[in-house]
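Handoff note, outgoing to incoming analyst
You'll be picking up this chain. Sequence as last confirmed:
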Amino acid sequence: MPAPARETVVDGYNLIHKLYGAEARKGAMAELRDRLEAALSAYRKASRRHVTVVYDGGAGAGGHSSSGALEVVFSGSGRTADQRIVELVRALKARAGLVTVVTSDREIHRHVIAWGASCTSSESFIAELEGLGIAGRTVASQSTRSATHPGKTGSQPLGDDEVARWLKLFERGS
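Most recent structure output, in case you need it:
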């Protein structure tokens, strides 16, 4: 008998801010949501998990759309995405153990664990996406690296001089 499908519930804006950093602070959320949803669709295909992404806002009781196994939910007025995520997990009751929530919000983490779901940080999930070769690498980490090491990108290896500097730095702490 095949194992039951697992579901991944994503705290949308939390992941966008971790994934796109400074770009997210500038605005253009609609474009960043589209980019995130494309990455989550690729993740859904690779992981064979049902994925729900929850965002703050939306009209009425909360907007909802579905594209294959990727569901997009807006929390609606009067409640937050955080509250909506906890409600989704709570409504699953005994099946909550099949859910992994992606967020770096400690309050959400505490609540979903109490209801039986597992939780992973946005940073860990980003590493998982990158490990799967899914586009949408962190603009924040690449731009930070480029600013501190001009001419280098996150995908280039360190030079011998730079490795020696790091080794020397860590030797001091021993």
